[in-house]
Specification:
Chain lengths: 101, 222
Amino acid sequence: MRLWAAVLAVTVANWLLKASGPLVLGHRRLPRAARRVVALVAPVLLAGLIVIELAGPDWDGLDWRQIAGVAAAGVGRVALRMPMLVAVLFGAAVTAGLRLL
Amino acid sequence: MTTRESFVEGMRAAVGPSAATFVLGVSFGAAAATAGWGVAVPLFFSAFAFSGSAQFSLLTTFETGSAFAAVTSAVLINARYLVMGVALNDSLHGSRASRALQAQALVDASFVVAHRGDGRFDIARLVGATVPQWFCWLVGTAIGLVLQPDATLLDKLGADVIFPAFFLLLVLDEVRSPRAAIAALCGAAIAGGLLLVTEPGYALLAATAGAFVGVLPDRTDR
């Protein structure tokens, strides 16, 4: 019962967090300066996610083979013009190969 | 582009994150089974909360301390949705309730896939990107609960590369100006620094402060 209550609480809070924009702001548009900030949220969030995915909690998750795979995906996309999914699979294959060595 | 075309485009763009979400879902299901959560609770949680960070957070903290602290931590870890929800608001359509419902499609990868530049978002693309990820998360949880696979097997296959590689490719597309590059570097530095002292969810929330580079005036303001 305690577990169900906790799961329900987190679920409802998650719904409210996602709905916070429309619930609080309604149809009001953001001022220009705020829109400029908002336009940068996506690249900032992405950069943070990359660091967190690669470093892990307390930077304990650093693995050069994972970093090499991610870098290979970037090279595949930019230098070799691979489609996005192919580049990601190429990166995963590089890491899997390095882990086999 | 029609709504239907945007939706399909979103689904296509989400193939990579969906694969990664499936793997994470399997991990969550297996971890929940090991923690003795049964079958119904993890499936309900994945179907209705659909949040890897909050779900893993509750799973790892629930048995170690007070339920209140565990719930608070799992909620705060997703506080970035406040920022993302505000960012999304100008692009939503319809009544307040309808807009709140559309915002439920908000997850990290879909938010970025739906970004059309200059703070505008394509909502059909957002929903299209979220649907396959939700499905993969739920099916992954179910498979993890049943099979409880060895986590090291997924690592051996390089599955841990999928999410960061996908995010790297997206950031290469997103960084179209020096201002965006500076903001992204600030976000990365904040996240990296805070990882040393706090949990990843909080570090990510703080990283969004990098977007305040946007308050600096640019040449077009003169």
